[in-house]
Amino acid sequence: MFLTISTTGTPERPATDLGYLLHKHPDKAQAFSTSYGKAHVLYPEAGVERCTAALLLEVDAVALVRRGKGKGRGGAPDAALAQYVNDRPYAASSLLAVALSSVFSSAMSGRCTARPDAPGEARPLRIEIPALPARGGPDLVAKLFEPLGWTVTAEAVPLDTQFPEWGASRYVHLVLESESLTLAEALRHLYVLLPVLDDAKHYWVSSDEVDKLLRAGEGWLPAHPEQKLITSRYLSRRWSLTRQAMERLELVRLAEADDSEVEEIDNAVEEPEEMEETAATDASDAAGASEAAGTAGGADGAVPATADGPAEIAVPTEDRPTPLAVLRRDAIIAALKDSGAARVLDLGCGQGQLVQALLKDPRFTEIVGTDVSMRALTIASRRLKLDRMGERQASRVQLFQSSLAYTDNRLGGYDAAVLSEVIEHLDLPRLPALEYAVFGAARPRTVVVTTPNVEYNVRWETLPAGHVRHGDHRFEWTREEFRAWAATVAERHGYDVAFVSVGPDDPEVGPPTQMAVFSISDRNEKEAKAA
């Protein structure tokens, strides 16, 4: 099992700098013990203008069988057929990837004490692997490496050169060339894609493999066009691990699109022990407002009342105060009933309070909750008891990860969409993206939007002057500002809009929550179709 890494240089930047980057001296031949045999590092050539490092892995076939135990722990299909006589000692596979990470760990992580700036510099690289298993052939090799900046030469190895009519084997002779990548990037590409091409791992695949994949794939895997195939094959097609990895990669992608940290996006709080209606702030019940454009959003009890708003926003009655969160849900459901909607989207569903309320009414035949936070969706799933729900009821509800920062084809064709306490969690420059994703692309017949009325804030003595109701609110609008925005959106996308007060309507400052109900009129629908 063999590969070479070559680079070229000049007197000012000698090729032998490769030795510093790999932390292996060009004048020495070194050997390292690995779990499955011995790895050798040597330099066939080491000069100012050209330097080549070779990694040779001698696989211990007996140790491989003992560790793999046939088809059990990590056993590959090949080993199951011929445990001691197979291609493992000769063809690059997951074993070579393990050796790369072990022998060149510092180079792969981009560390070089002697030349601190060198790991971050792109340099001419040529990597050659004489025998690489490629389930998918040369075409798949190109699809995997070319999007990463490599020039790929993958020649199929014939089954037998003496009998060309037998055709090609499943192995390729691979040469990768690039002048735009760092050595660390190149090693991370190989670490992930060698076992992907072999489509077999020769050791036990556990949950920590997800972390290894995400570390090695940082910076390139979230945007790779073959991300799903790479993830599935790398994790030995284990569905639960693949799903976990895909969810985390989606968060990374959204964070990069929003120029945020992943922790800011997946910011749902832990579920309280009691699943009750608690005192509701405008931050509560909007728990998943982080949905909007992948920005951080509010969650139930996410901040103390003394920091960002009152601990309870309630409307007093003779018996018991009614939380504003409940009044808001009631107003939303009433608007949905008036519209005649049966298939409803809750965009930014958070911990699933609205979805739970909609499920109680049989007129809503399909309810979809989306959020960017997987933790919020997990809490929502537990709240709804999806794992114990009857088949008929479960067929009415679906939860999936999505962000309103970009269009999502899964959101098209619904009767209504709800944005409850979502828009205020976006930076204002990002509102047009949400507007297009909902009103332009998804285009439900009815859209219900609720948001705080900043004028009402003066009615709470516990809310300091000038503070918004939740620490993550990027803005809170006056009634005039909200109406102006809603009117512009309605005109631009062919909707009519009506406004509803939620909560006590103070004669001076208005209600605590303002709601807009957008609807496509028959006239606007005909005009839109004609256009």
What do you see in this structure?
There is one protein chain. The chain has helices spanning 17-22, 61-68, 77-81, 94-103, 105-109, 137-145, 183-198, 208-216, 227-234, 239-258, 262-265, 305-308, 324-339, 353-359, 374-384, 391-394, 431-442, 479-493, 522-530; strands at 2-8, 30-34, 37-46, 50-59, 125-133, 151-158, 168-178, 314-315, 322-323, 343-347, 366-371, 397-401, 416-420, 446-452, 496-502, 513-519. It is an alpha+beta fold and 531 residues long. The chain is elongated. It starts with a strand and ends with a helix. The model is unreliable at 69-76 and 269-314 (pLDDT under 50).
Concise description?
The chain is an alpha+beta fold. It is built from 19 helices and 16 strands.
* Gyration radius, rounded: 29 Å
Low-confidence parts: 69-76, 269-314
Number of helices: 19
What is the helix content? 25-40%
| Outline type | elongated
Largest sheet: 7 strands, antiparallel
Q: Could you state the oligomeric state of the chains shown?
A: single chain
